[in-house]
Amino acid sequence: MEQDHEPRIAVYLDYENLAIGARENLGVAFDFANVADALAERGRVIVRKAYADWSYFDKDRRMLTRHQVELTDIPQKMGGSRKNAADIKMAIDAVELALERKYISTFVICTGDSDLSPLVHKLREFDRTVIGVGVKGSTSNLLPPACDEFLFYDNLVDTSQPPSTERKHSTPGDLSLVITTLAGLEESTSGPVRGSALKRAILRKEPTFNEADLGFRGFGGLLRGLVDRDLVTLDGSGDPIVSIAGSGALEAADTLLTTVVGDAKSVPYTGLKQALLKADSSFSEANLGFRNFGSFVRSAEARDLIKVTGKNDDRVV
Fold first, then answer.
1. Of 72, 205, 219, 251, whose Cβ has the fewest other Cβ atoms within 10 Å?
2. Mean pLDDT of 45-64
3. DSSP label at 248?
4. Is the entire prediction scored with pTM above 0.85?
5. What is the C-alpha to C-alpha distance for residues 311 and 302, in angstroms, rounded to an integer?
6. Contact 154, 28 (CB under 8 A)
7. Which domains can be identified in the chain, with CATH numbers?
8. Digit-coded pLDDT (tens) for 104-115
9. Alpha-carbon distance 69 to 63, whole Å?
10. Pairing between β-strand 232-235 and β-strand 241-244 as defined by DSSP bridges
11. Which of 94, 90, 118 lies closest to 106 in space, CA to CA?
12. Are 43 and 9 a contacting pair, CB within 8 Å?
């Protein structure tokens, strides 16, 4: 089965580093949902572990528990003599797992601390793929080059939205989950995206996903509905190759977006939708299958059409 070849992933979070980095550099609380979505497009997450003195992160602990993250408590004083205890415990656990679980092919090390670079090197010696995740402003320059891939949390989070307290389920007529997941798969995988792989990635993001909630009898019917809207193309039968459409409504919206941004050189994020409507009053992200304007922008950024920089209300496209 094709599913047997999917990467099995273990995730380790140096939580103090992530939480403080997100708060001080991005002005938001760290939300594991953003990391989980990115990893769902890369394989099946088997292990999720986070390390910290949880007496300092009570609200965060509840958020992580909702995402089935196993919490390892490292009691210590902030900045005290045991500040490296979490790093040491995380490194021991990761190496132990690599030796005992040969089927774990990918390790995700979530930290910006260069002290964990030796762990990255050791895992790669074991012929494991290593993905790093960290906040740009608090990530050592030594860490990204050591990894096979490095994801900056800044690019995963929408700072215009508060951290999720509960996962929202798919709603009728909302196709943004399908489109954004497909865009992410096209960016993160080297080969074509099959319909079955797309469905599995969607279910990893949202286990309650059901085509019937969107008005379709099956996933094949949903894909054909997206073809009718000129949002995707299908190649083959049975388990077709699915691609973001290169023509039709989405291409027109992409052209509108790149033209507006290109003519102005840069557009404040808060004024982008108004600028699009001024150029074309018929623009509607809902008609393209997106839940909201932010989903449309994230999809465009995932496809390298635009780049969003800055924080919160100071973001620029």
1. 251
2. 93
3. S
4. no
5. 18
6. no
7. 2-155 (3.40.50.1010), 169-317 (no CATH)
8. 999 999 999 999
9. 9
10. antiparallel
11. 94
12. yes
